[in-house]
Amino acid sequence: MELNGVPIDDTYAEAFPIWVSRVIITAVTEEWAYKAAVEATGFATSAIGCPAEAGIDCYVSADDTPDGRPGIAILICTSKKKMKEQLIERIGECILTAPTTAVFDGLSDVVAGVEEKIPVKLHFFGDGYEEKREISGRTVWAIPKMEGEYVGEEEFGAIKGVAGGNFFVMGETQMSALMGAQAAVDAISGVCGVITPFPGGIVASGSKVGSKKYKFIPASTNEAYCPTLKDKVEGSKVPDGVRAIYEIVIDGVNEDAVRDAMGEGIRAATKVPGVARISAGNFGGNLGPFKFELKDVLKDYL
Amino acid sequence: MELNGVPIDDTYAEAFPIWVSRVIITAVTEEWAYKAAVEATGFATSAIGCPAEAGIDCYVSADDTPDGRPGIAILICTSKKKMKEQLIERIGECILTAPTTAVFDGLSDVVAGVEEKIPVKLHFFGDGYEEKREISGRTVWAIPKMEGEYVGEEEFGAIKGVAGGNFFVMGETQMSALMGAQAAVDAISGVCGVITPFPGGIVASGSKVGSKKYKFIPASTNEAYCPTLKDKVEGSKVPDGVRAIYEIVIDGVNEDAVRDAMGEGIRAATKVPGVARISAGNFGGNLGPFKFELKDVLKDYL
Amino acid sequence: MELNGVPIDDTYAEAFPIWVSRVIITAVTEEWAYKAAVEATGFATSAIGCPAEAGIDCYVSADDTPDGRPGIAILICTSKKKMKEQLIERIGECILTAPTTAVFDGLSDVVAGVEEKIPVKLHFFGDGYEEKREISGRTVWAIPKMEGEYVGEEEFGAIKGVAGGNFFVMGETQMSALMGAQAAVDAISGVCGVITPFPGGIVASGSKVGSKKYKFIPASTNEAYCPTLKDKVEGSKVPDGVRAIYEIVIDGVNEDAVRDAMGEGIRAATKVPGVARISAGNFGGNLGPFKFELKDVLKDYL
Amino acid sequence: MELNGVPIDDTYAEAFPIWVSRVIITAVTEEWAYKAAVEATGFATSAIGCPAEAGIDCYVSADDTPDGRPGIAILICTSKKKMKEQLIERIGECILTAPTTAVFDGLSDVVAGVEEKIPVKLHFFGDGYEEKREISGRTVWAIPKMEGEYVGEEEFGAIKGVAGGNFFVMGETQMSALMGAQAAVDAISGVCGVITPFPGGIVASGSKVGSKKYKFIPASTNEAYCPTLKDKVEGSKVPDGVRAIYEIVIDGVNEDAVRDAMGEGIRAATKVPGVARISAGNFGGNLGPFKFELKDVLKDYL
To answer: Matching SUPFAM superfamilies, A to Z (chains A, B, C, D) (predicted)?
Structure first.
């Protein structure tokens, strides 16, 4: 199987359920919405060591936001148990505190039939000076603050989505692989309902579950895919001629969104000179309920 | 007291001790060091609701990094108890995972006599394939990963620094105050050893300790400084003609760094048209051991 | 007439014909397409003193570019006589020289029935080593260069479009007006087939034709709209309470595109706190054949 | 000769005299100074097809600008004959028109003994409403404009500097060469008194003087260095294993500045994985009076 001359492994990505909320941040300009979004989605690469996985989904045009200002949609992904706390803290500490922001539930814009609603009562911050209002048919709280006023919804939809959709970008040189991964992240940013939660959207240190040597850690380097260990480990999966491998990890609101993102991302990576091969990560299919076969993901492009 | 025609209140900022570590992230280009730094310092505005306060301190030229690559220094500020966990998680999940990064202790570059050292043993991720090396006289671990190799020190200095240095930028309009605050943040970015941990460096929702109405929350809106409440609360401190107030909060490695940052920031804000007044926040001096009198902070400029 | 509480003058913008070409630049990543686009559209604010008016129109998704890579569309606007030279020099010196770029005619993507075609023969640069190819049904030249290969079409459509569509953003303070202008530019960036050619999309120095005092210059400050001259000139048009005025100048492929851009831009500006009034610039209707009445432009929003 | 394990050719860069002016742009924030600088230095890669070579030199801290606001220094490089026109047009159309800018001569900050002064009389734009003032001992004109007021010096130093300092970054893959070139540009941005005028600082299409086949063009592809022609041309200079070559072209105020920039840039490029070799371009030494031997340039690093 080849795409744009790049071999594609006949394998699949294995993914897991995760709870997902989608928050629309609006502000006076795109730049200020972006700054709040960056702060709110930081320290959120992997649920293993971070309190959540989070990232920027996409820009939302002023035509499509409840208050007619430019917006950015973010996804926050975590366990159902932690979601309320994560929404309260990330919105309360990173968005309510940011200049000119307002906040709205954005999940129904991308998926139908959201039933679960998480209460996020930030209006207590108003110390009694807050008041209820309505914006475009939504109930919001307006909270006086030193800047003027914060406006926000206090109920956010949540659904069981998909975490850990992924593919590997392998390169003849490290920089070829890195630029291939960057091109993939660019392309995925155009797909609605997904994030690539790692730094700059890219994982440089794809891992395996557990450790052979250090039993006390939950994940460790995936030595079979480490180029510098190609001659040192048995059963290395680093193809000849590959000197670096990046993983793109994708979380999304549902399987369709993750599949689209994988397709767009892989296609983009294969256009970059020096990208040598595409593969994907799985654990033998025993762990995650979602399987994304690369041949299915790419069927419209092959 | 006036600076560039802007009245300065004769008051002081009250600040508190916090533990501070400083991490230098290097990467193949400035951009990739920056992307890792942004992820590692996100969700870190206020120790009240975030696991730490963190931010970007400054660029570090390749001439001044241990591995001769471009770097960015970040500060991580939290309690002594939480520091180890925060260093492990933020470096482990947000920097080790990022493309082309290496990590070095950067505290001794800005303060002398650092005694406290925090162990940050990430080399277990290498699952036995890791090895010790030396770079510019520093002991580092090289950990094989899918990208190639991560290199990092595993001991980071920590000192008791200063959190909550601050000043208020008051504007004739909200946008004047916002641009004044932005100019202040720009100027502070040139001061070494400090961060402005809030989104884009700016606090739009300066708070008071506790709440009069909702006893269960640790902080609430500072109604005395809320422009929309000027005629609704007794003792409003919003000056006539002021329509918005932003707070710049500064954490730093020591009092000198915070004082310099306050001076540079205030001076910059007063150059912006429509900035109407500068003040600072304190709690009557009963809580924090550090006082930054604006007249001292600005003595070289007045 | 009011929009979002901001008074709108019942006036019109007067605009002029200009020749317009639209060039799609693709590259390995969005960032590299953007860098080439920025260079190619610089020094191009006003046909009075610059060799052309030029700017970035919009991103073009990899799905919509001939070579399946991410792209950016730019407009180059000048007289019919100068267009060939400007295309040759701006593409030849600023895009062909840039890393990983390819170039395609992008005019037919936004307007139908383009008849005029401008030859842009850059393949001579190949010194005989160049060769013709086809990409997605388009004839291109592939030129060997030190980086590898440049690929480009050599015929670009041109049409008589519209220059000088405009509106004024007036603010209670300079920073309110500036942020209002910024919000307008953000919104206009989402409209296809238009550019805002001035720095950052904003004109700080709106001018009148000619000069009363210095007969040798083609344009001079529009003193009737200068806030600092409100009490010094007769017939000042600066409304009470207005302290700064920015002009947004729009060039586009046709009247519809310019009208849409004016509507989106004005609407966005009126959402910014401290924006006091919106107006537009004209010369009494004697000069330009195009009139954009604000009440027509905004009829869907009022 | 090797640096960081990368072979360095024992050759030299040949460079030429060019006239250089240095303009400091200040604005309300760094961002607005930057936007004006980008517009003013666009369409300025090569004196062959552009009206000038221009670029951003460096940030100038508010401590070091005449008006105490953040600034950016740009270089404009052209023939002595064209300099006046280029200064008038680039400052007049791209900086005076930009929000909140002021302009100052910045050449004396980096070189001593500047004798040549170019008059740049923009105050005529004020149509008689302009007035002379003094800022930090400099004579400036304040010109009323719709935004408020533009302030600028009207005499700019010019010196005979150096154009065409250069080196080649050769890569095992195109992306390795590109990232090596990017790292070089990052490093050079820290050197005062130089620019890299091409798009993003990088030349993808290094050229030779004239053409063998098309006598009517002034420059054509340097086929000896084209990787795709390695087996098609006699005397190819593309080393085995090299698949892409980028050239970094440097203009500067004097030989020292260009030499420093070459050293910093080469050193940075050699730190990037997959950079295979460094060389430099010359024409046999018959044309340009300046020679930069790589072994001299790098003598502090080897």
So the answer is: Formylmethanofuran:tetrahydromethanopterin formyltransferase
Confidence of residue C283 (pLDDT cuts 50, 70, 90): confident
Q: Tokens in use for C78?
A: 């000048």
For residue C28, give the chain A residue with the closest CA.
Answer: A272
Q: Domain limits of chain C?
A: 2-14+161-298, 19-159
**Which of C3, C6, C28 to probe the A interface (max A CBs under 10 A)?**
C28
CB B214 within 8 A of CB B161: no
Nearest to D244 among C148, C206, C216 (CB): C148
Beta strands in C50-154 (DSSP E): 53-60, 71-78, 102-105, 116-119, 131-135, 138-145, 148-152
List the alpha helices (DSSP H) in chain C. 30-40, 80-94, 174-188, 255-270, 294-297
In terms of Cβ atoms closer than 10 Å to its own Cβ (0-12, 13-18, 19+), residue B301 is: middle
How crowded is the C-beta side of B20, counted as CA atoms within 13 Å? 34
With a cut of 0.95, is the ipTM above it?
yes
Instruction: Please answer whether residues D45 and D202 qualify as being in contact, where contact means their C-beta atoms are separated by less than 8 angstroms.
Output: no
Contacts of A1 (CB under 8 A, 6+ apart): A7, A8, A9, A10, A294, A295, A298, A302
The 3-class SS string of chain B reads CEECCEEECCCEEEEEEEEEEEEEEECCCHHHHHHHHHHHCCCCCCCCCCCCEEEEEEEECHHHCCCCCCEEEEEEEECHHHHHHHHHHHHHHHCCCCCCCEEEECCCCCCCCCCEEEECCCHHHHCCCCEEEEECCEEEEEEEECCEEEEECCEEEEEEEEEEEEEEEEECCHHHHHHHHHHHHHHHCCCCCEECCCHHHCECCCEEECCCCCCCCCEEECHHHCHHHCCCCCCCCCCCCCCEEEEEEEEECCHHHHHHHHHHHHHHHHCCCCEEEEECCCCCCCCCCEEEEHHHHCCCCC
CB < 8 Å to C228, chain D: 144, 148-149
As given in the structure block, the two tokens for residue B211 are 């709440």
Residue given tokens 């030396």 in the structure block: B134
Chain D's closest residue to B59, CA to CA, is D190
- Alpha carbon of residue D113 to chain centroid: 21
Which residue stretches of chain A have pLDDT < 70?
none
Task: Record the tokens describing residue D254, joined without a space.
Answer: 């004097």
User: Rounded to whole angstroms, how far apart are CA atoms D216 and B222?
Assistant: 73
C272, closest residue in chain B (CA to CA): B175
DSSP class of C6: E
- Residue given tokens 């960057």 in the structure block: A182
pTM above 0.90, yes or no: yes
Q: Which of C28, C182, C190 sits opposite A61 (nearest CB)?
A: C190
Smallest Cβ distance to C274: which of B174, B180, B272? B174
Note whether D2-14+161-298 and D19-159 share their fold: yes
In Å, what is the CA distance from A23 to each residue of A123, C259, D14, D258?
A: 17, 32, 57, 50
> Which sign does the torsion angle of CA B142, B144, B146, B149 carry?
positive
Q: Which residues of B177-208 are buried (b: 16+ CB within 10 A; e: fewer)?
A: bbbbbbbbbbbbbbbbbbbbbbbbbbbbbbbb
CATH class of residue range D2-14+161-298:
alpha beta
Q: What is the CA radius of gyration of chain B?
A: 21
Structure tokens at C21: 């070409």
Contact D173 A272 (CB under 8 A): no
The proportion of chain C whose per-residue pLDDT surpasses 90, expressed as a percent, equals: 96
D19-159, CATH topology level = Alpha-Beta Plaits (3.30.70)
pLDDT digits (tens, 9 = 90+) for B238-286: 999 999 999 999 999 999 999 999 999 999 999 999 999 999 999 887 8
